[in-house]
Amino acid sequence: MMDSINVLDKTFVKFIPEAEIDAAVQRVADQINEDYKDDDAVLLVTLNGAIVFAVDLLKRLNIKCKISCVKLSSYSGTQSTNNVKNLIGLNDDLHGKRVIIVEDIIDTGRTYQHLVDMLKPMGLKDLRIATMTYKPDAYKLDLPIHYFGFSIPNKFVIGRGLDYDGYGRNLNDIYQLKID
Ligand code: IMP
Ligand code: MG
User: Fold this and answer.
1) Which residues line ligand 1 (CB under 6 A)?
2) Ligand 1 atom closest to Cα of residue 177
């Protein structure tokens, strides 16, 4: 029997168990600890979805780092929309900083592109991205994805910060939308 849950009007089935996600977060943290051991970093967390991954990651980082948050919005229900909105802007000065964008998921890449365009004029030392999950079949950009936990099929997922209309972020496993 497959684990399944209902969120609002939809059914989701368990896709990535908690222990595998924890191991993937540890792997990403190990890479960042190695790559930034001689430098400090700013983790730029995209609210709301990335908060869970960001906390999990932070607890495993032993480098000198700060966090900063932005809130963007591109999704409505289970569909990505074309325009990315800035709901909470950036307040910190990132000039000369090594910035790592922290994302829950990269889908089409529109949010990532939007962030790159926003950060480019700010004179960062360098910019990378760490995402818990990404969907290679939906991703439309040439921008590199430096650190990722999982590459996943182009299906809607929830859990570990990822939501369906705001719900499901507190699930410790990742669930995939059931198509029947
Ligand atoms: P992108 O701009 O198309 O890359 O979409 C990125 C944003 O859309 C993510 O930060 C999520 O908020 C949301 N998103 C994309 N795919 C999913 C999904 O499968 N589940 C939940 N949210 C998603
Ligand atoms: Mg997001």
Assistant:
1) 49, 74-75, 80, 103-112, 156-158, 162-163
2) 19
> Could you tell me which of 67, 64, 72 has the C-alpha nearest to residue 54?
67
Protein residues placing their CB within 5 Å of the ion ligand 2: 49, 104
Looking at CATH, the fold of the domain delimited by 18-153 is given as Rossmann fold (3.40.50)
Could you tell me the residue ranges of all domains in the chain? 18-153
Nearest Cα to 90, choosing from 124, 57, 133?
Answer: 124
pLDDT tens profile 125-139: 999 999 999 999 999
**Catalytic residue ranges:** 107
d(CA 18, CA 51): 16
Single pTM value for the model: 0.94
Query: 31-73: per-residue pLDDT in tens?
Result: 999 999 999 999 999 999 999 999 999 999 999 999 999 998 7
Instruction: Give the closest ligand to the alpha carbon of residue 110.
Output: 1
